[in-house]
Amino acid sequence: MKTLLMFLFFVTCHLYAGTLHLSLSANPSRLNPILSTDSASSLITQWIFNGLVKYDKDANIVPELAESYMFKDDTTLVFHLRRDVKWSDGVPFNARDVLFTYETITSPKIFTPYASGFMHISHVKMLDEFSVEVKYKYPYFKALEVWMMEILPEHLLKGETDLMTSKFNQAPIGTGSYVLHQFQISKDTVLKANPTYFKSSPKIDTMVFHYLPDPSSEFLMLKSRQLDVGTLTPLQLERQVDADFRDYYTIYEEISHVYTYMGFNLRSEKFKDPRVREALSLAIDRQELVDILYFGHGKVCTGPFLPGTGAFNTEVQAPKHDIAKAKALLKEAGYDENHPFEFELTTGSNRTAAAQVLQYQLQKAGVVMKLRALEWQAFLNTVIFPRKFEAVLMAWSLGLKSDAYTIWHSESSRKGGFNFVGYENAEVDRLIKEAEKIVDQEKFDALYREIFAKIVADNPYLFLVIPSEITAVNKKITPVSTSIIGVMHNENDWIKP
Q1: Of 37, 84, 116, 262, which one has the fewest beta carbons inside 10 Å?
Q2: pLDDT digits (tens, 9 = 90+) for 257-268
């Protein structure tokens, strides 16, 4: 009997241990969910913190820190919180944390684009230690989705004088399935399973995010089987993956929820002329970008909302590549061979190949585009945040529930907002505000399709490509399945022998 118990103990420890090796292409900046505006930081914080609700694998909204929720009427939402949740330092979670998070994110001292979702709220109040009432100013179409925002610990941060520079941002305490174990700039980030997690603890004890800013380094680690999950480029998939690789990894390919775009600083005199923006758009061959950069593993992006959703406008087509018309528009705007249109495109170091293809395409229309590539954090801190650029090449994540306010409303051009290009259109502003109060999905979608068309017509961005997301996962890991929210939707259940 003793031998059998020892054997079962060994098997259990074996199944519920192990290390999952992944990669990060950029340094995380702040591991604080209300301040995490870059993908690297968000990738880490999603494991450390929880919201009141979340999406399940089929994109349905389900309770998370909340045990249940109910709408008392069109503008009043009540959350009943779980009573078995603890912060990873052992302190119980309760309604004070929810109220504190709301008050923090809406504070004028905090600069965060996520505050936009909370401005529709009239008040948040505790009904008791485990119940919260949220009163909206009017029926709001994202009343539930707002509370996917991860909750902060009141007991640790209530006396913080400056959250923007707090040590908490590099040493967070959360309620999530993992806790931060190691974090240093340009080093690996390590998470450990949270032993006090309110759901069943993850079956994989450790997650190591290897800092690999160069895609070729990630691929080399995949080939040497040092990563369990990694991203493949189309070139790697088409030309460099061999039979041994396919024996070790399962490859999943789906259209990503990300588009690539060229954004203009609309405060710059160079880009205030709509003829210039249209000329640049016509000079770019988007299908050629898909073919050259992605070997056909992607599609042309036609606008700002996710294909397949009701907000996506199928009647809006990508501009037809037309060099002659591009040159004519530039000439109308005062540019020719003797006085060419010149500008600088700044991007992260991981997008230099795309920038070079764009440079080549625009050159055919007589446009002189200078390139500047920076490491990601330097790009954010010296270019995006201070808004010191002429044009940028970036990517943006497409949400399952479209929300135009955060990027396209003129109010979001303020400090901390995502409308850093300075886009302003009074009619788009009006339609966004009108849509916010519509809970009828068909009416909402109709308005958003109109917003879609108006934004595209203005060319504040040049929408370029939606690449495929190609993920390789170690075949030894089970159970793995695809989902609209990603292949790692059930990572807490994964077992790595």
Answers
A1: 84
A2: 899 999 999 999
